[in-house]
Amino acid sequence: MGSSPHINLMAKISSQSGKKLDKVSRDPRTGKAIQERNSYAVSVWRRVKMKLDGRDPDLNKRFSVAEQVEFVLKEARNLDNLSVLYEGWTPWV
Asked: Is 31 exposed, middle or buried (0-12, 13-18, 19+ CB in 10 A)?
């Protein structure tokens, strides 16, 4: 009796996925797997880190917490920023 088409399909999928796992880029010196980085994600991460370090408006100056709060409040009240506010934003949800 022949094997089920479902079992054959599962075997084919697992063998194909095994091939993909074997094609990992490795560092030629250490042999460790090299992780590809999403450039946009890295830029967002850097921007968040700058904000947490107090360097958001000016990279060359470190702002105090009070100065950061004042900057954020000023930006939030800026009419130019409010005019481009997303109309579907629902802060109460």
From this structure: exposed
